[in-house]
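Note to self: the last two entries modelled the partners one at a time, which told us nothing about the interface. This time every component goes in together.
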Amino acid sequence: MPPERTLLMIPGPVEISPAVREAAAVAPPGHLDPDFQTTFAAALAAMRQVWLAPPEAAPFALAGGGTLAMESAATNLVAPGERALVVSTGYFGERMAEMLRRRGAEVVILAAPPGDAPAAGQADAALAAAASSGRPFKALFATHVDTSTGVLIDPEPFARTARRHGALSVFDGVCATGGERFEMAAWGADLYFTASQKAIGLPPGLALWVAGPRALAARRALAAPPPLALDWEAWRPVFEAYEAGRPAYFSTPPTTLLLALRTGLAELLEDDDEPAAAMAAVFAAHRRAARALRSAWRVLGLAPVPVREPLEAHTLSALRFPAGRGNELVAAVRAHGVTVAGGLLPALAGTYFRVGHMGWATRSPEMLLRTVSAVGAAVAGAGSAAAREAERAFEADFGTGPETAAPPALAGPRRGD
Ligand code: PMP
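The predicted structure of the combined assembly is written out below.
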């Protein structure tokens, strides 16, 4: 990468791989083109693998973003008057709740103070109480990583408790899918959605989700269909046809981005015969990058917004400004060649900033080190002892973390462990 290009280390869009860039730069193919059909079919099949979803689950890839995926979940799974439980860990949980309210659902929010997360036991109690009152929740919604707070939840117990109580479980993976561990089939989760510009490693422009059989059945059981452009029943025949080797039409697909999707997913899977092993390596690469960055942040006195270590996401760092500093720090980091992001949660406005470290960057120690250097220079001064110490802490941890067999490899992009 040319050193003069400012590095994009916000929590999406993110740096993308050279191969994905090339794939996204071709002349757009027609959606009925036979070569495009084959590539799109392969991308859809690869989604099931990246999601670690059961074979009967249905992948969806639409022009749009995470917000569109959220709206499709709200409108296909919940009917007006039904009850929804939202486990909120920040801004995007609140957005999900607002969409469900606009859908006419009765929404109950389980929230925690900024930086904290409700426990799965609380969701279990709420689901049990609702079921015994005769007014059960139709679905539980939770954000895998809330990008506004950097809070990670473990979706597994939420998925399992929802299933135990007969509710659907829906997870917003926009800042997590392809970065944080998610095992859709093993956990019995019903819907997991994301957008292309995050850990999947593409430009913005695609809304992506995989729906399990219970979620698909819930859509079919709706008495009144959702808006046509969002209707899973309108889209599914198209994806099914492509996977069966025939192109089909409902709305013109974003062909160029779908070529890039095939490339990006193949990079994650490394065309491995064993998706579980490939994805375990991808998740480990994110953990390794996050841990090494945390070592650097500690040296620089940057405290995380998440209140406990297990709540700290591996796809981004949400960091409190040091004493006496504020939003001007974001511009100061950029002056050193790296773009990071300000805060997003109104309740914490002006008190923190965010650094994205997902997707391709987790395979590029240079990008991560450049980020540490730029943040270190902005916080402690370029070439200061603290900035150098932060770089050393990053390098030592990146090369010697518990999941690492190899010595520090700061010479070229590689899989994280
Ligand atoms: N959910 C989460 C967790 C997100 O991080 C985002 C985007 N930052 C969204 C939903 C919305 O996605 P989009 O901006 O692509 O509409």
